[in-house]
Amino acid sequence: MSKNFDVVVIGGGPGGYVAAIRAAQLGFSVACIDEWKNAKGGAAPGGTCTNVGCIPSKALLQSSEHYEHAGHAFAEHGIEVKDLTLNVKKMVARKDTVVKQNNDGILYLLKKNKVTFFHGRGSFAKAGAGGYEIKVAGAGEETIATKHVIVATGSTPRVLPGADFDEKMILSNTGALAMTEVPKRLGLIGAGVIGLEMGSVWRRLGSEVTVLEALPVFLGAVDEQVAKEAQKQFVKQGLAINLGVKIGAIAVGKNEVTVNYVDDKGAAQKAVFDKLIVSIGRIPNTVGLNTEAVGLKLDERGFIAVDGDCKTSLPNVWAVGDVVRGPMLAHKAEEEGVAVAERIAGQHGHVNFNTIPSVIYTSPEIASVGKTEQQLKAENIAYKAGTFPFLANGRARALGDTTGFVKFLADAKTDEILGVHIIGPQASELISEAVVAMEFRASSEDIARICHAHPTLSEALKEAALAVDGRSLNF
């Protein structure tokens, strides 16, 4: 006889495990199914984010930044480091420890909230009068029954035709995070978030990094002024960025990968790398869900079709995160997961897609929320802009990192904040103030009138807000 639950969540990534916990908090009996395994075959919930995405990449970014500071920046502070050495295996081992700590933390949270965890692959078995039967295929196989299903199966890396991932020579984010030696020549196809972050890690550790991007512009989704500054800084650091390229044949040899491509001037080129990272986007992970067994509708791009409340085409079946429309961001998945659990309970779940921040954890960091300047122009929205450079910020000078600026965009008539864009030190932390302000529909004047502690990087937000009205005090 199958076990019965009020809610079954398929997927234990940020959207899934958070949805399960919130549903349990609301009094439902909840099961969460996840198939990720650690090196020993044990349960490793947390999805791509925890295992081969957000968490491990930030661990390596931090380690590589320490290494670069020790080799190049410490001397300016009067700290002399002699005979600096690099132990990549230990660095990767630390990354693995951080991942395991997060895996174990999620398992603890599920247990604490009385969520029943199943380690295996969840899929639809059949629909019945009272709900759905879900098959769990793991060490064994069992079927559980539920009234509500939340699908949170995430996404997988998009494969470049003719360049299948072997995770040895042609790498996805998984292989890029597992290298234990620094490749002398590292190629990157795709200048998106994942590609730039991984390129930054290995460039700091000594790789010659070449970026091949099909689009004619760099970071096209980012505010244009920020993107131009980012490109300038990355090139200055040593990244070779090639835009507007057309990738041709890719040949994998014993110890190298050859990429043939046509550059933006139409000339045929050839590049040889020791390793090649392909980062050309991600696709929704619906393989193996057995959606056809219950008639769950997918859209033309393979995402699970949902409405604004994350309801699917089936009654009491919901979907959140990377497997549905919207930005593929862990925090967006979490917000949707909480909102769905609350909607199942008859509450009014809240997700504001206009105030979901985006962050690129390069150096300098890039963070944004709301509209870019080019979007406002395209939509014929009258606006005012204010910028403030970190070069004029006292705390940034003390840190020794004055790269970049803060940019505010506000409605020309009402002064409501329409977008905030930051490139510079700790942009990922600073953006939260802008998110809060926009969620409460604040004006740039509101931020300009709020007292900010001195000396802090956050003062750059106040100054940029003042600059919207042409009255910055320190620049």
TrEMBL record:
Record-listed NAD(+) binding positions: 190-197, 213, 281
InterPro entries the record matches: Class-I_Pyr_Nuc-Dis_Oxidored (IPR050151), FAD/NAD-bd_sf (IPR036188), FAD/NAD-binding_dom (IPR023753), FAD/NAD-linked_Rdtase_dimer_sf (IPR016156), Lipoamide_DH (IPR006258), Pyr_nuc-diS_OxRdtase (IPR001100), Pyr_nucl-diS_OxRdtase_dimer (IPR004099)
Pfam families assigned: Pyr_redox_2 (PF07992), Pyr_redox_dim (PF02852)
Lineage: Bacteria, Pseudomonadati, Pseudomonadota, Betaproteobacteria, Burkholderiales
PANTHER family in the cross-refs: DIHYDROLIPOYL DEHYDROGENASE (PTHR22912:SF224), DISULFIDE OXIDOREDUCTASE (PTHR22912)
Source organism of the structure: Herminiimonas arsenicoxydans
GO molecular function: dihydrolipoyl dehydrogenase (NADH) activity; flavin adenine dinucleotide binding
Obligatory cofactor(s): FAD
Class in the EC hierarchy, top level: oxidoreductase
Keywords, sorted A to Z: Cytoplasm, FAD, Flavoprotein, NAD, Nucleotide-binding, Oxidoreductase, Redox-active center
Catalysed reaction, written as an equation: N(6)-[(R)-dihydrolipoyl]-L-lysyl-[protein] + NAD(+) = N(6)-[(R)-lipoyl]-L-lysyl-[protein] + NADH + H(+)
Protein name: Dihydrolipoyl dehydrogenase
